């Protein structure tokens, strides 16, 4: 008897793996939040 492939399961497993990888890529793509000095922003706004 020959080996049969479970095509639906294979497709689902690949989709799950692809979604995980894409999720990680999205999370690492976000820029790092820099610390903002509110007082400096207020001074700059007042100077204008």
What does it look like?
There is one protein chain. The protein has 48 residues and is mainly α. It has one domain. 69% of the residues lie in helices and 0% in strands. It contains two helices and no strands. It has helices at 7-29, 38-47. The longest helix is centred in the middle third of the chain and has 23 residues, at 7-29.
List keywords for this structure.
mainly alpha
- What distance lies between the first and last C-alpha atoms, to the nearest angstrom? 82 Å
Radius of gyration: 25 Å
The percentage helix is: 55-70%
| Helix/strand class | mainly alpha
What general outline do the C-alpha atoms trace? rod-shaped
What's the number of domains?
A: 1
Uncertain regions: pLDDT < 50 for 5+ in a row?
none
Summarize the main sheet. Answer: none
Number of helices: 2
Number of strands: 0
- Proportion of residues in extended strands: under 5%
Q: What is the arithmetic mean of pLDDT?
A: 89
Order of helical and strand elements? HH
Helix/strand layout:
Layout: H1 7-29, H2 38-47
Summarize the structure.
With 48 residues, this protein is mainly α.
């Amino acid at each position: 008897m020959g080996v049969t492939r479970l095509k639906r399961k294979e497709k689902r497993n690949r989709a799950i793996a692809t979604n995980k990888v894409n999720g990680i890529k999205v999370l690492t793509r976000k820029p790092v939040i820099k610390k903002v000095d509110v007082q400096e922003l207020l001074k700059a706004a007042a100077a204008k």
